[in-house]
Amino acid sequence: MTSKSAAAAARATVYGYPRQGANRELKKAIEGYWKGRVTADALRATGAELRAANWRQLADAGVHEVPTGDFSYYDHVLDTSVMVGAIPARHRAAVAADALDGYFAMARGTQDVAPLEMTKWFDTNYHYLVPELGPDTVFTASSAKQVAELKEAQALGLTARPVLVGPVTYLLLAKPAPGVPADFEPLTLLDRLLPVYAEVLADLRAAGATWVQLDEPALVQDRTAAELNAATRAYRDLGALTDRPKLLVASYFDRLGDALPVLAKAPIDGLALDFTDAAAANLDALAAAGGLPGKRLVAGVVNGRNIWINDFEKSLTTLGTLLGLADRVDVAASCSLLHVPIDAAAERDIDPQILRWLAFAQQKTTEIVTLAKGLSQGTDTIAAELAANRADLASRAGSAITHDPAVRARAAAVTDADGRRSQPYAERAAAQRSHLKLPLLPTTTIGSFPQTAELRAARADLRTGRIDTAGYEQRIENEIREVISFQEKTGIDVLVHGEPERNDMVQYFAEQLTGYLATQHGWVQSYGTRYVRPPVLAGDISRPEPMTVRWTAYANSLTDRPVKGMLTGPVTMLAWSFVRDDQPLGETARQVALALRDEVNDLEAAGTSVIQVDEPALRETLPLRATDHAAYLQWATESFRLTTSGVRPETQIHTHMCYAEFGDIVQAIDDLDADVISLEAARSHMQVARELAAHGYPREAGPGVYDIHSPRVPSAEEAAALLRTGLEAIPAERLWVNPDCGLKTRGWPETQASLENLVAAARTVRGELPTS
Length: 772
Description:
It is a single chain. The chain is globular and about 75 Å long. Helix 13 packs across helix 15 (361-377) and helix 24 (585-605) packs parallel to helix 25 (629-644). It contains 29 helices and 20 strands. It has a seven-stranded parallel β-sheet. A five-stranded parallel β-sheet has the order 16-17-18-19-20. It has a two-stranded antiparallel ribbon with strand order 2-3. The protein is 43% helix and 12% strand.
């Protein structure tokens, strides 16, 4: 096909769309179902309404082929486990009794049965449920969900493309099931899994699917020869099927690298590539592979993970280059639009000029359609859109918000000495033990306590003027008093104030820093029914005044025990925001670190002896390719040390991490030079403690013994057993006892019972320690 005919064939599509609804209707329906207020039929009806609304919005915008199967009540990887019959043995009875309740039991657990482990979806802030597989796993096809949702879209008269997690990525995301040797490789099950995918593909073809998308984002990571060979076999076998739809294999989040020629040569019908940050690498590799003659190329030129408007001229240049490399070139976002909010037009508190710099899912859909039109019909047909786009890009580049000379001068003046503590850890540890006088196995929590309906109502009342600032602050003081009193009565050693004043661990700080923008409706799914509103990091960052000192000092005044100051670290402030794309991330991190350093120093000056700077995003932001790790970890660890290194030796610096696999960044954790680190560990049965020990980590650590992502209450015996496992790797003088993460999402009754059991477990195990 000539370039001209390839351009004429260009169509607009997307890989996936936000699930929650404009007003988070899905969250409300699911949580209502969990509480018995919403029936299963009503929940399913809400899901069907949201799917139909999404498809209509896409079609009305001009998308030619809508995705199906990307909708989920909790997680699309969990949906894949159901589709292939990979139900853990402990959940089979629940699934057999009631498929929906069993599904949620796998996601959340019950009082008697632990859930699946949860971790980050590549380097995003979305979390998936990790499949548990073993040599005895038997896969069985269950395509009912995928077929039903395809038929729903077809009933609306739409051209639809089912989306599935690809078999190679699914196996690479999996872990050995409990009781299976840790060295078991789930990828060895590929030949057993492929017939199940073949059956699902046949079912979708029978239901009318012309194309099916198989997502293989794991192939943008560094892959071994054996893993690339598995991809070759997978798509050789699936491509050879006669009873199947056309296959579009999608990759995203980075360059496809060595996997690109594998897929280019496979007997599949199309390939989807990320042409945003990975544009140059994927272009070069695609050309080197000889292009995709006779095949479809879906070009992800609109960034599906960030919220800045597209540069139309740059994208059209990329698309024009691609025209000679495939039989047909379609236009898409770089990945599913799951990772961005729904509609920027809903924002009423952002300056209209700045709002024109932002593109959420609906605006990105319009961008995709515009680019497809320009590619197919010529740029004259989108002349007005091109002119407006140029003006908006120029407005952003020239805005005073993006360039503060004072901030830049301070960042440029930073020296290596600013990122080093005044004494080595051994000397600091002795000073801290003398100052804090904590017992062996000290107990603490991670920071937040339950955000009650009363607290949310108080914030709403303040926003609407039903109460004044004094009334709001009185409610916050009352909550802090209750939290401090509960911790003292329970016997916790290092207390927290509970963070009742905070809406979100990033948004709370972003609202008090210059250079950030907050949204009112920019909700994005983090996991299950947990949605966050990532702030927009739009310009240079500074801290006009203290952000946390008042409430921490008030909590300190209520007790003789140490109360931790609680901050969110610079890497997480970037990772859980929509970060600016007009300067290197390391420069932005340094600006944020300097603002936080001021806060750390003010907390110490106000009498706070323990300060926790959370960095749960350190691992998740790790680039997907190993060649990019060193540069990232250098600025990431430097920004943390810049935040924390201005304090006295006796001030104990904590950090916290969760939601990720930590084994491959243990050296970076060491390089942070924090005095104490707490980590998520309950679901992984203290794996991180063993990883720290294997590294020779020399500081104090608190691997979690209470899984806060499940409503179940761990018994004191269960927590004690985990604690004993932790002691096999970390000596008692360096081991802390804490939950996996903050308690914001939990209810008070389960929190109270769980923490009482946690303290009881610490006392029991403390009593088992040998006396000197």
